[in-house]
From TrEMBL:
It comes from Apteryx mantelli (North Island brown kiwi). Gene3D superfamilies: alpha/beta hydrolase (3.40.50.1820). This is Platelet-activating factor acetylhydrolase. Its EC number is 3.1.1.47. Keywords: Hydrolase, Lipid degradation, Lipid metabolism. It is an enzyme of class 3 (hydrolase).
């Protein structure tokens, strides 16, 4: 996974080529909109999807960073509008000799494809509607004046966790042979996934707000066998929830984000379950586990603080290896990811156990 630090998204380092498709199921707020990544057959000259496919998403990111849309959205569009993800767009699915495990990932606040207004979302109109109303955009929402942030975000995190559960239910329907129409009319046929997903090996993962979502989703849906939380923002979770969290969680924290209060909440879980682990990656910042850290030079980094002192490829290696070791342990994967088990105890270069210090950027 290592490599030069050019401004581009890194290629996948696993045994398969990676395919990608956008999926939208249902037009109501009970629908789903997500980007699907899957093992695919290699294709020469395969089209690569845009990282930010629509300008409207830039406005949501600008709102999330509390910066003016007037200058921030065009800056983001200019900086990242042509960036492409190094995967095969609607590439042909590659069946395996055994069924694949399923990971459902929930992103942080302000990103794309969630109904809860914790991200930017759009829904195409019904056939025959006027062109002026062909799309309904649901933008990322800041906390309204006069509302307490906890109550506003707590409602959103529950909505987001419910979406994760509905995502799992969708893949169950596909596995049962139910026809699932994709509103976006892409070239990827979801029915090819039938008989290819091992629904006994399912985990949920997320970053920041999505990390809290992942913890909550394990309570709402016991079929999630474990969770991986990347620099989780624990604030939106109610205190009454913690005794209900019984599944193991891997918290992979960065050095410059967590507060003592947030870490104390993680430790409430690790004190009750010896399989719940907390590690901190030194030299990392809150955006280090995200795509942003690979795409920003010095100018953008000064504005958005997307890079820490640690080489982003090294940070990716640590994060990926720790997550894979944890997933092998709790999904009973027949792989060799246990070679990185020491990372789960905070043993290794640029990683420490627990959260020995908090240098929050909040």
């Amino acid at each position: 996974m290592g490599g030069a630090t050019s401004l581009a998204l890194p290629r996948a380092g696993g045994p398969h080529a990676v395919g990608c498709a956008d999926v939208m199921v249902g037009r109501t707020r009970q629908g789903l909109f997500f980007r699907l990544f899957y093992p695919c057959r290699p294709r020469e000259g395969a089209e690569r999807p845009l990282w930010i496919p629509r300008y409207e998403y830039c406005g949501g990111l600008a709102d999330f960073t509390n910066r003016s849309r007037r200058w921030c959205a065009p800056l983001l569009s200019a900086a990242f509008g042509t960036c492409r993800v190094p995967v095969s767009w609607n590439g042909p699915f590659k069946p395996g000799s055994a069924r694949y495990p399923l990971i459902i990932f929930s992103h942080g606040l302000g990103a794309f494809r969630d109904h809860s207004a914790s991200a930017t979302y759009f829904c195409p109109a019904e056939a025959g509607e006027a062109a002026a109303t062909a799309e309904e955009w649901i933008p990322y929402q800041r906390v309204p004046p006069g509302q307490k942030e906890f109550h506003f975000r707590n409602k959103q995190v529950h909505q987001r966790a419910d979406e994760c559960v509905r995502g799992l239910q969708l893949f169950e329907d596909i596995s049962r042979g139910k026809s699932i129409p994709n509103i976006l009319h892409g070239d990827f046929d979801l029915s090819v996934l039938q008989d290819s997903i091992d629904l006994t090996k399912v985990a949920v993962m997320g970053h920041s707000f999505g990390g809290a979502t992942a913890v909550l989703a394990t309570v709402k849906e016991p079929r999630f066998r474990c969770a991986v939380a990347l620099d989780a923002w624990m604030f939106p979770l109610e205190h009454a929830l913690y005794p209900e969290v019984s599944k193991p969680v891997l918290f992979i924290n960065t050095e410059k984000f967590q507060t003592p209060e947030s870490v104390a909440r993680m430790k409430r879980l690790s004190s009750r379950n010896s399989q719940t682990k907390i590690i901190t990656i030194l030299g990392s910042v809150h955006q280090s586990p995200t795509d942003f850290t690979f795409l920003t030079g010095k100018f953008i980094n000064r504005i958005f603080s997307t890079r820490g002192a640690l080489n982003p490829y090294k940070g990716l290696d640590i994060t990926s290896r720790a997550a894979l070791a944890f997933l092998q342990r709790h999904l009973d994967l027949n792989e060799e990811f246990n070679q990185w088990d020491e990372l789960l105890e905070g043993i290794g270069d640029s990683v420490v156990a627990e959260a020995p210090f908090c240098r929050s950027s909040l």
